[in-house]
Amino acid sequence: MKTLAAIFALARGLASPSFAAAKDWGGFEVEALKNHPDGKPVVMLNLIKFRAKSLDGNGTGLDAYTRYTAVAIPMTLQRGGKTIWLGKVDHSVLNQGSDVNWDVAFVVEYPSRAAFIDMVTHKDYRKANLDRENGVEKQIVLANTTAGISMVQSQPATPGTGATTAP
User: Fold this and answer.
1) Residue 121 carries which DSSP code?
2) What CATH number should be reported for the domain holding residue 156?
3) pLDDT, tens digit, for every residue of 72-86?
4) Contact, 60 vs 52, CB < 8 A?
5) Distance from C-alpha of 96 to C-alpha of 118, rounded to nearest angstrom
6) Taking phi first (over 0 means left), then psi (-120 to 50 degrees means alpha), and beta for anything else, what does residue 16 get?
7) Backbone φ, ψ for residue 13 (5° rounding)
8) Domain boundaries, position 100
9) For residue 148, what pLDDT is reported?
10) How many Å apart are CA 69 and CA 105, to the nearest integer?
11) Number of compact structural domains in the chain
C-alpha cells in the first residue's frame, strides 16, 4: 500500500479542471452497490485524472489526493481491503470511442460490497473525501466480481492455425 504514494508522485503535473457531479453522497452510487449480490469479494477498478491545482488552493490535485489517501488507505486495510495493482497510465492501446485521458489506474479488492459501503459512509471517510474531490478532475470506480475461469480461458483451435476460440 505504501507504493500508492510513489505511483501518485509519478503523475505530478498532469491535470486540469472539471469534476462530474455525484448521484449519491460524495459521488459514490451506494444504492447501486446495495442492489447487487453481496457476501463475496468485490474488486474496484479505479481510473483517476488529477486537477492541476487543488480546488482548496492547497497544492496540486495530486497533493490533495495524497492527503485523502492518508485516511483512505488505513480505512481500507481496517475493513480487509487490499491494493492488488496500481500504476501510472502511459497511453491508450485500444480506444473505441471512450475517454482515455487518465493519470493513474489501480485495483483494490474488498472482502464484500458491505465493507466498501461501510468505509465510504463513515464520518472520517466523508471528511477525507473532500480532499479527493478537491484533487480529482475526474474519476471512475467500477465494481467487479471475479469471473469463473471458464468465462475467460481460451481453448486452442485447430493445430497450426495460431487461432484460439473461447469455450
Assistant:
1) T
2) 3.30.70.100
3) 999 999 999 999 999
4) yes
5) 35
6) beta
7) 85, 15
8) 3-165
9) 65
10) 14
11) 1
